[in-house]
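Each letter names a residue; structure tokens follow underneath. Both lines appear below:
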Amino acid sequence: MNFEFHAIYWREMVKFFRFKSVLLTSLIQPVMWLAFFGLAMSDSFDQLTSLIPNLPDAPVVNYLSYMGAGIIAMDVLFSGLFGGTTLMFDKKFSLLRETLASPVPRFHIILGIGLSAVTKAFIQTFIIIGVGRYLGMDFFKGYTLAETFTAVVGIMLLVAAFTLGFLFLSGSIAITIENPEGMQSILTLLSMPLFFVSNALYPIDSFPPVLKFLSMFNPLTLLADGIRYFALGTNFSVMGNHYIYTTADIAVSFLGLISFALVMLSVAMWRFNKVDI
């Protein structure tokens, strides 16, 4: 069995580590979100909710821990969405024409780029978890070594499915749009509702019914819920809200993200097969 996608994957990773500005930005951005936005918001929310009585039999989690899952989700959202821009520049400089004319199957091209985006998302996720724990996030609090390992694997599987879905989406857009400015506008337009109509940074209990319904099908909400299930446990309270996650909840998150990734893969392959070289 041939694995031509590894050449595409390796090229993308070499580009990632060779261009120091891109590398440093990707590594520093998650830290900046946690250090500035995270700490400022967590202190404000913790003070506002300090007078709310704690719920019985529900461990209290600080807002930084709650938001940490959302920051991971937000970071890998942008990593996946903008990961497809590499195809846009390859097309602009005629590199994509040469790649498509090669014997490499078109599925392997999009798969190689997708796996490189997943690797970058893993690196960013580990940075957020490591720095977040140093800053006071309660991820894996009270977990044994085996439980921590299982939780990390679960988070990475969710991150992988989520990243692939949005990479395939951005790849299909990149192969369709003719100019980088147009793609930038579309990705910005997509990212804003995805981010704000989710529970990444705040609970959705007080959302209007329509937004609450939409947030239930938002991949960002599914990812944030899954991360909190693995990192914070199945029963906790934050800002006066009580969260109980079950096996069925995490199964919904996994199935939803995998279904989203498969649908986006189908769209991406349809667009790739329509490309003329």
Observations:
- The chain has a mean pLDDT of 83.
- Residues 145-176 form the longest helix (32 residues).
